[in-house]
Amino acid sequence: MKTKLQQFKESYFLYSFRRDMVAMASFVVLVFFLLIAFAAPWISPMNPYDSANIDIMNSEIPPMWMDGGSKEFPLGTDNQGRDMLSTMFYGLRTSIIIGLGAVAIQASIGIVLGLMAGYLGGKTDAVLMRLADIQFSFPYLMVAIFMSAIFQVVFGAGSFEQLAIPLLTIIIGLSNWPMFARTIRASVMGEKNKEYVEAARVIGLPQRIIMFRHILPNALTSVMVISTIQVANAVMSEAALSFLGLGMPVTKPSLGSLIRSGQEYFFSGSWWITVLPGLWLVLFILVINLLGDWLRDVLNPKLYKG
């Protein structure tokens, strides 16, 4: 009898991963990003949240390979005198936390509503999918901007700054759940008439047990793929909201707020304040999307080799 580990070692999934150099390189880079993001408090040269470590006299120091650069600040400093390397580590950490949290909210709402719509059908399906269609009719970033503006009015700018991370997580999570709902609905509609579901109905299992214990595990393949892509979308949404001034405050760096804080200094010569976080963000999004594309190809039943 083969163990789970032996089955995984012999699986097509691992075989395909080992043969795809792009997927392997993307995975290594993604793991690197995650490690430095969550180890930021221990590996960063300074804490950009601690005003005692910040000296405004150190503002706009160029990277160390440029004239006027300093080895103390390898990637230079921003307009507030914060070390760019440290702010990028902390900013990536903030963006990842918001992205993962937002996708968890999207998935929770979308999976439940998609299961109900696909399995129950009829009026339930019609109502839930019309709600999804209404939300899809607006660009999700517009919905996020609208919700962010409302939250700032309700809580006030000062309180919003203190609650920025959980509020942005909720805002981005609520703005894009229909993607999960539609994907799960399509998978459930393909599963609900299969023999194992009919057998569960015959023995009298409750609908919620059939949906969550029997149908959902067989529909999770599509969720894995879409979750990967949605993490990238959520991070980009946070960056866009912060760039527009509706996301993370400048005093609490995220990749979006870092790009925004440096835009007015770009043409004055301090290009690194915007460009370096921008490249950091692009590379992070790229490796996630490459992994998502590989997952989609490998987990697509039509491409499965056995």
UniProtKB/TrEMBL annotation:
<dbReference type="GO" id="GO:0055085">
    <property type="term" value="P:transmembrane transport"/>
</dbReference>
<dbReference type="InterPro" id="IPR000515">
    <property type="entry name" value="MetI-like"/>
</dbReference>
<feature type="domain" description="ABC transmembrane type-1">
    <location>
        <begin position="92"/>
        <end position="292"/>
    </location>
</feature>
<keyword id="KW-0812">Transmembrane</keyword>
<dbReference type="InterPro" id="IPR035906">
    <property type="entry name" value="MetI-like_sf"/>
</dbReference>
<feature type="transmembrane region" description="Helical">
    <location>
        <begin position="21"/>
        <end position="43"/>
    </location>
</feature>
<comment type="similarity">
    <text>Belongs to the binding-protein-dependent transport system permease family.</text>
</comment>
<keyword id="KW-1003">Cell membrane</keyword>
<keyword id="KW-0813">Transport</keyword>
<protein>
    <submittedName>
        <fullName>Dipeptide transport system permease protein DppC</fullName>
    </submittedName>
</protein>
<feature type="transmembrane region" description="Helical">
    <location>
        <begin position="215"/>
        <end position="236"/>
    </location>
</feature>
<feature type="transmembrane region" description="Helical">
    <location>
        <begin position="271"/>
        <end position="292"/>
    </location>
</feature>
<dbReference type="Pfam" id="PF00528">
    <property type="entry name" value="BPD_transp_1"/>
</dbReference>
<dbReference type="GO" id="GO:0005886">
    <property type="term" value="C:plasma membrane"/>
</dbReference>
<feature type="transmembrane region" description="Helical">
    <location>
        <begin position="138"/>
        <end position="157"/>
    </location>
</feature>
<keyword id="KW-0472">Membrane</keyword>
<keyword id="KW-1133">Transmembrane helix</keyword>
<feature type="transmembrane region" description="Helical">
    <location>
        <begin position="163"/>
        <end position="184"/>
    </location>
</feature>
<feature type="transmembrane region" description="Helical">
    <location>
        <begin position="96"/>
        <end position="117"/>
    </location>
</feature>
<dbReference type="InterPro" id="IPR050366">
    <property type="entry name" value="BP-dependent_transpt_permease"/>
</dbReference>
<dbReference type="Pfam" id="PF12911">
    <property type="entry name" value="OppC_N"/>
</dbReference>
<dbReference type="InterPro" id="IPR025966">
    <property type="entry name" value="OppC_N"/>
</dbReference>
